[in-house]
Design brief:
The structure holds three protein chains of three kinds. Chain B is 19% helix and 34% strand. Chain B is α+β, with helices and mostly antiparallel strands. Chain B has one domain: RNA polymerase II/Efflux pump adaptor protein, barrel-sandwich hybrid domain (OB fold (Dihydrolipoamide Acetyltransferase, E2P), Beta Barrel). In chain B, the strands form two sheets. In chain B, strands 1-2-3-9-8-5 form a six-stranded antiparallel sheet. Chain B has a three-stranded antiparallel sheet with strand order 4-6-7. The two termini of chain B are 24 Å apart. Chain C folds into two domains: 258 residues, Type I PLP-dependent aspartate aminotransferase-like (Major domain) (Aspartate Aminotransferase, domain 2), CATH 3.40.640.10; 127 residues, Aspartate Aminotransferase, domain 1 (Alpha-Beta Complex), CATH 3.90.1150.10. In chain C, helix 9 links the parallel strand 5 and strand 6. The chains are: A alpha/beta, B alpha+beta, C alpha/beta. Chains in contact: A-B, A-C, B-C.
Chain lengths: 443, 131, 488
C-alpha cells in the first residue's frame, strides 16, 4: 500500500477512521450501489518505480526522429525556432508550474501580473486594444472568434480563405454547426487571395478570416482584403504568425477587428503538436465579448497596485449558459513561456529573427531555383514557400529522409492538384550549409 | 452609498424585480432594491438603443456587477424613448437610488392594458417573502 | 513591484540572433512592412530572470503548500514528469513527422488510450480535446452527430443538467446548440429522481453530470437514473472532474455513462500551470466510436502504430494535431507509476476528505450530512448569520495561516459555500494543521470578526478592489500613452 505519493501510515489511517466514525476504508464507499462497483483490480501493468519509468519513456522517445536527429524543413503551422534556456528557468518555478487559476488574487499576484504583461505584449505585437490570457491553440481561437463576431453582428455567415491553415478551417467547421454558423471558403489564386473574390463572398457575412503569411508562406494583400470585407460590411479577422510581427505590419494598423494565431513559434517547443497557446486580441469595442480570462489592473486596500481577473461575468463560472465561451483551463503556462521569450527577444531581437527567416528562406528559394526547381507561386513570402519537386512529394519526403533530411510538408495532403508541391520552412536555426544540403537532396 | 431597503408604494412591480412608473402613455422602468442588492455594486449597464422595441416579460438589456450579470426583464411592451445616460456613465447610481436617479429607460407604451397585469406593492412584497 | 515594461531601458536586450556572414538582406515589400516596432521589454537576461523569479515568489502553488480547491484536485505534480517531457525525442518532435519517425509518440498515445478505456470502462478514446470544457463540447458534438445519424436530431433538443453543475456544463450545452433542462437536487444531495423522471422524454438528448457530484456525494440513485435515460433513448455524459474519487472502485462506463471526459490536469497530475495547460480526452461506448474526432492513434496488426484518418462519420477536428502531447507524456508517466494502485490513490483521497469533514462539521454548517467522497461542501452561513463573517472572509483569513483557500461560492445550491478537496497527496499533519486553522477562524469570527474582514494581512497585496477592475478595465500597460482606453 505504500507509494511515493501517498503518505498515510497504518496508525494515521486508524486514527482517521476513528475520528470519522467508521471501521474501514471500504465503509467510506458504502453509498455506492453494488451494481456499479468494479469488484476486481484494474487490469493495468504493475506500478513502475521512477527509475523503471524513466527507462521505459526513454525507450519510447528513442523511437521518435526529432529535429536533433534529423535536419528538418517542416513547418505548416508548427516551427523549429530557437527556444532560449530562460524559458525553462521560468516555467520550472514551482510557484508558476503548480499554481491554479488565479481566482484568489492575493495568493496569485505572480501569475496575474505575468498574464497582464503577456496581454500587453500581444496587444503590442498585433496593434490591438485588448488580449485575453490565451486559448487552446491557433485553431480553436479562430473558432472562438467566430462565436464573438456572430454575437457582435447577429450574422451567421463566416468567410475563410482557402489559403488559411487546413487544420484551422477544419476546427472552425467542426464548431460551426453548434454555433449555428455557415462557413464559406474563398479559393486562392496563384498562392494568395483576390480581394474581389472576398468582397463577393462576404455579402451578409459577419466576418472574413485570412492568414498572414498564409499557409503557403505567401504574403496576402492584407489591407485590400480588409477593405473588401469592410465593403461588404463584414469584420476582418487576421490569423498571424507572431514571429512575423517584427517585420510585417500589425493587423490593428490596417483595420482588423480581431487578430489571433498560434503562439507556438514564440517560445514553445514543438512537442509533437502541443501543448501550445492560441492568442486572441481585439479592438476595444469587443472587450465584453472576449472569450477566456482577462487580467485587469486595480488597487488593494492600501492603494497599492495589484492585478485581478476581471470581466469574469463573461465567463462560464458566472454567466453559465450565456457565457462568451465555455473555456476554463487555458494555456497560461505556455503563454508565460511566450512572454518570457518575447522579453528575451526584445523589439530588436524580434525584428532580427524575422529578418533571418526572410533572408534564409530567400537564399533557399534562390538556390533551389538555380538547381532547376520551380517555385509553385510567384509571390513575396516570409519564412515558408511552396516548391514543385517534379514527382509525388510524399515519395520525395521518403527518399530525403533516407538521406537524413526532412524536406518539408506535402501540400497535396490538403490541396487538390498539389501532389508534387512541398512546403519548405526555413527558420533562423537553419544555416547556409543546411540549405545546400536541402538543395542537394531535392535536385 | 447604497440605499437602504425600500419599495415605494406609487410604483408598479414585476416578479423579476423590476418596477414601472406610469406617466400617461409612457412609463419609466428600473430595477428594485432587491435586485440591486443581490447583484452588488453595478459596474456596467448594457442598454437598448433609442427606438428599439421592448417586449413584456422579455429581456431588454443587462446590468452587471463583479459577480453576476442579470437580464433586465421588461414589465411592459413599448418603444424606447430615452436611456438614462447617468446610469451608463455611473452604473452604481442604481444601487444608490434605484427608484430615482437610477431609472434605466423611458418607453412609450404599446398596450396600456398590460399595466393591469403588474403587481402592486403588497403583491410584490409577497413575491419578496418567497425569495 | 514593477512591470517588466517599467524595468525596460532602451538599448538593452537579452537575445543574440546569429546571422550568417554575407547573407543578403531581403526587404519585405513596402506595403507589407511594419511601421512602428512593438514596445516589447528591453532588458538583459539577468534582469529578466530576477523579474520572473520575484513574480514567482508572489505566487502560491501546490509546491508551496496545501491547496484544497474543491473540484480542482490540486495534487502533487511528480517532478520526474518534467524531465520526461524534456527528452528530445518528445520535445523536438515535429507533429507532421512521418509515422515511421514518430513510433514512440504514437505508441505512447495508444497506450494512454488503452489505460483510459480500462479506468473508465468504455470502448474507445479520443485524446484530442485540450481541456475538460473542450472535452464536454466534443462530447456534446458526438451526441449531436449520433442523433443526426439516427434521424432524431430535430426532436432531441434538450440536455439535462443538475443545479449543482459546474459552470462549464451549461456553457458547453449552449455552444453545442442544445437547450438546457435543469433538474433539482434532493435533501440527501442526490439528483431528485422524480423531478428527473418528469423532465426526461423523447426530446431529451442527454444527461450531463459528474458522479460524485460537485457536493462531493455519490449519487445513490445512479442505477435508477440509468434506467430512465435508457428508456428515453437518450445518452449519458459524465463530467470527469471528480474521477479522483473512484478510480479502480467504480467506473463511469459501469455506472451507465456513454461518454466521459477525463481531466488530465486534475486526476492525472498534469500541473495546472497557473490556469493551463490541461487535457480533456474523451472515452465513449462502442456505438459512438465512428463519430470521434480525427485522427485517432491506432495499433496495426503488424504491431506498428499510426494515425487513422479514415472516419467518414467523424465530427471533424476540435484541436490541432493529436492534442496536447506534452500533457499525454506526463499523464501516461503518472499512470505507469501507479498501475492498479490507482485504487489506493482514490481511497486515500476519500479518506483524507472524510477526515477533514469530520473535524470541521461542527463549527461550520453541513447541508447534506453524509459521508463524502473526495471533496465536501461546508457552509459559512452560520458565521454570517451570527457574526457577519462570510465565506469570502474565511477564505481571505486562511491566507494568513499559510493555506490556499478552498473554492468559495460554488456549488450555487449551498449558501456561503466552502468546497474543500484535500487530495491524497497530503500527510495527516498537514490536514490537522488546516483543520486547526479553520477552527481558529471560526472562533475569531465570534471574538473579533474584523481580523477576518481585514484579511489577508501578510500577502504581497491586501484585499483587492475587484469592482474597480470591472468598471474601468485596464487590461494592458499604458506606456504613458496620452489616450488610456476609455471606459466601455
Amino acid at each position: 500500500m505504500t507509494h511515493p505519493f501517498l503518505a498515510l501510515t497504518d496508525s494515521d489511517r486508524e486514527e482517521m477512521l476513528r475520528t470519522i466514525g467508521v471501521s474501514s476504508v471500504d465503509e467510506l464507499f458504502r453509498d455506492l450501489p453494488a451494481g456499479v462497483r468494479l469488484g476486481r483490480p484494474l487490469d493495468l501493468e504493475p506500478a513502475l518505480s521512477e527509475q523503471e519509468l524513466s527507462a521505459h519513456l526513454a525507450e519510447l522517445a528513442s523511437r521518435n526522429v526529432d529535429t536533433t536527429r534529423e535536419l528538418s524543413f517542416l513547418g505548416a503551422g508548427v516551427y523549429d525556432h530557437y527556444v532560449p534556456a530562460v524559458v525553462d528557468t521560468v516555467l520550472q518555478r514551482g510557484e508558476f508550474l503548480t499554481a491554479y487559476t488565479p481566482y484568489q488574487p492575493e495568493m496569485s499576484q505572480g501569475v496575474l501580473q505575468s498574464i497582464f504583461e503577456y496581454q500587453t505584449a500581444i496587444c503590442e505585437l498585433t496593434g490591438m486594444d485588448v488580449s485575453n490570457a490565451s486559448g487552446y491553440d491557433g485553431e480553436t481561437v479562430t473558432a472562438d472568434a467566430c462565436y464573438v463576431v456572430k454575437h457582435a453582428t447577429g450574422k451567421t455567415r463566416i468567410v475563410v480563405t482557402e489559403a488559411t491553415n487546413p487544420q484551422v478551417r477544419q476546427v472552425v467547421k467542426t464548431y460551426a454547426p453548434g454555433f449555428g454558423l455557415e462557413i464559406v471558403e474563398v479559393p486562392h489564386r496563384g498562392g494568395t487571395t483576390d480581394p474581389d473574390d472576398v468582397r463577393a463572398a462576404a455579402e451578409g457575412a459577419a466576418a472574413v478570416i485570412f492568414q498572414q503569411p498564409n499557409f503557403f508562406g505567401c504574403l496576402e494583400p492584407a489591407p485590400e482584403l480588409v477593405a473588401a470585407a469592410s465593403d461588404a460590411d463584414a469584420l476582418a479577422i487576421a490569423h498571424v504568425d507572431p514571429l512575423s510581427l517584427g517585420v510585417l505590419e500589425a493587423p490593428g494598423r490596417y483595420g482588423c477587428a480581431i487578430a489571433l494565431g498560434e503562439g507556438q513559434a514564440a517560445g514553445n517547443l514543438m512537442s509533437y503538436g502541443g501543448p501550445h497557446y492560441g492568442f486572441l486580441a481585439a479592438r476595444q469595442e469587443f472587450i465584453r465579448r472576449m472569450p477566456g480570462r482577462i487580467v485587469g489592473e486595480t488597487v488593494d486596500a492600501n492603494g497599492d497596485r495589484g492585478f485581478v481577473l476581471t470581466l469574469q461575468t463573461r465567463e462560464q463560472h458566472i454567466r453559465r449558459e450565456k457565457a462568451t465561451s465555455n473555456i476554463t483551463t487555458n494555456q497560461t503556462l505556455l503563454a508565460l513561456g511566450g512572454l518570457v521569450y518575447l522579453t528575451w527577444l526584445g523589439p530588436q531581437g524580434l525584428r532580427e529573427v524575422g529578418e533571418a527567416c526572410l533572408d534564409l528562406s530567400a537564399l533557399a528559394k534562390q538556390k533551389l531555383q538555380e538547381a532547376g526547381l520551380e517555385l509553385a507561386f510567384d509571390r513575396p513570402t516570409f519564412k515558408e514557400f511552396a516548391v514543385r519537386v517534379g514527382r509525388n512529394a510524399r515519395d520525395v519526403i521518403r527518399d530525403a529522409r533516407a538521406q537524413g533530411l526532412h524536406p518539408g510538408y506535402a501540400l497535396g495532403r490538403d490541396y487538390e492538384g498539389m501532389d508534387d508541391v512541398l512546403l519548405v520552412a526555413v527558420t533562423e536555426k537553419r544555416t547556409p550549409a543546411e540549405i545546400d544540403r536541402l538543395v542537394e537532396v531535392l535536385s | 452609498m447604497a440605499a437602504a431597503e425600500s419599495y415605494p408604494d406609487d410604483l408598479k412591480y414585476h416578479a423579476e424585480h423590476d418596477w414601472a412608473r406610469i406617466d400617461g402613455d409612457e412609463a419609466v422602468l428600473g430595477v428594485t432594491w432587491f435586485a440591486a442588492d443581490a447583484l452588488g455594486e453595478l459596474v456596467h449597464y448594457e442598454a437598448p438603443s433609442v427606438g428599439a422595441t421592448v417586449t413584456k416579460d422579455q429581456s431588454y438589456g443587462e446590468v452587471e456587477s463583479v459577480k453576476a450579470v442579470s437580464d433586465l426583464i421588461a414589465p411592459l411592451s413599448g418603444e424606447v424613448l430615452e436611456v438614462n445616460q447617468k446610469v451608463l456613465d455611473a452604473p452604481e447610481t442604481v444601487n444608490d437610488d434605484p427608484y430615482g436617479e437610477g431609472w434605466l429607460v423611458r418607453i412609450r407604451l404599446a398596450d396600456a392594458s398590460e399595466v393591469d397585469a403588474l403587481l402592486d406593492l403588497e403583491a410584490y412584497k409577497t413575491v419578496l417573502a418567497q425569495q | 513591484m514593477k512591470l517588466i515594461y517599467e524595468r525596460s531601458q532602451a538599448g538593452r536586450r537579452a537575445s543574440v540572433i546569429p546571422r550568417p556572414e554575407g547573407l543578403p538582406r531581403t526587404e519585405v515589400p513596402e506595403e507589407f512592412r511594419r511601421t512602428e516596432p512593438p514596445r516589447l521589454p528591453e532588458v538583459p537576461e539577468f534582469e529578466l530572470v530576477r523579474h520572473f523569479t520575484e513574480l514567482s515568489t508572489r505566487n502560491f502553488g501546490v509546491d508551496t503548500g496545501f491547496y484544497p480547491l474543491g473540484s480542482c484536485t490540486m495534487k502533487y505534480n511528480p517532478r520526474v514528469n518534467e524531465r520526461l517531457v524534456g527528452l528530445p525525442g518528445f520535445a523536438f518532435l515535429h507533429p507532421h513527422q512521418e509515422e515511421e519517425g514518430a513510433q514512440g509518440a504514437l505508441e505512447l498515445e495508444w497506450r494512454l488510450q488503452e489505460i483510459l478505456m480500462e479506468v473508465t470502462g468504455l470502448d474507445a478514446v479520443s485524446l484530442q480535446p485540450a481541456a475538460g470544457s473542450q472535452g464536454e463540447l466534443t462530447g456534446l458534438m458526438l451526441v449531436r452527430a449520433y442523433f443526426t445519424d439516427r434521424g432524431e436530431i430535430e426532436q432531441r433538443r434538450k440536455v439535462v443538467i443538475p443545479d449543482t453543475a459546474h459552470g462549464t456544463n451549461p456553457a458547453s450545452v449552449t455552444m453545442a446548440g442544445f437547450e438546457i433542462t435543469h433538474v433539482k437536487t434532493d435533501p440527501r444531495g442526490n439528483i431528485d429522481v422524480e423531478d428527473l423522471r418528469a423532465k426526461v422524454d423523447e426530446h431529451t438528448a442527454a444527461l450531463m453530470i459528474t458522479n460524485p457530484s460537485t457536493l462531493g456525494l455519490f449519487d445513490e440513485n445512479i442505477q435508477e437514473i440509468e434506467k430512465i435515460f435508457n428508456a428515453a433513448g437518450a445518452l449519458m455524459y459524465y463530467d470527469g472532474a471528480n474521477l479522483n474519487a473512484v478510480c479502480g472502485i467504480s467506473r463511469p462506463g459501469d455506472m451507465g455513462f456513454d461518454i466521459v471526459h477525463i481531466n488530465l490536469h486534475k486526476t492525472f497530475s498534469q500541473p495546472h500551470g497557473g490556469g493551463g495547460p490541461g487535457g480533456g480526452p474523451i472515452a465513449v461506448r462502442k456505438m459512438l466510436e465512428p463519430f470521434l474526432p480525427v485522427p485517432a492513434a491506432i495499433r496495426r496488426k503488424d504491431g506498428t502504430f499510426g494515425l487513422d484518418y479514415d472516419r467518414p462519420k467523424s465530427i471533424g477536428k476540435v484541436r490541432g494535431f493529436t492534442g496536447p502531447f506534452g500533457v499525454f507524456v506526463r499523464s501516461y508517466a503518472y499512470m505507469r507509476m501507479y498501475g492498479p494502485q490507482l485504487r489506493d490513490m482514490s481511497e486515500t483521497a476519500v479518506l483524507n476528505a472524510n477526515y477533514v469533514l469530520a473535524r470541521l462539521k461542527g463549527p461550520y454548517d453541513l447541508l447534506f450530512d453524509r459521508l463524502c467522497m473526495h471533496e465536501f461542501v461546508l457552509s459559512a452561513r452560520n458565521l454570517k448569520r451570527d457574526h457577519g463573517a462570510t465565506a469570502l472572509d474565511v477564505a481571505k483569513r486562511l491566507m494568513d495561516y499559510g493555506f490556499h483557500p478552498p473554492t468559495i461560492y460554488f456549488p450555487l445550491v449551498v449558501p456561503e459555500a466552502l468546497m474543500i478537496e484535500p487530495t491524497e497527496t497530503e500527510t495527516k499533519e498537514t490536514l490537522d494543521a488546516f483543520c486547526d486553522a479553520m477552527l481558529a477562524i471560526a472562533r475569531e469570527a465570534a471574538e473579533d470578526v474584523q481580523v477576518l474582514k481585514d484579511a489577508p494581512h501578510d500577502r504581497s497585496v491586501r484585499r483587492l478592489d475587484e469592482v474597480r477592475a470591472a468598471k474601468d478595465p485596464v487590461v494592458k500597460y499604458a506606456f504613458g500613452d496620452a489616450t488610456v482606453p476609455a471606459k466601455v
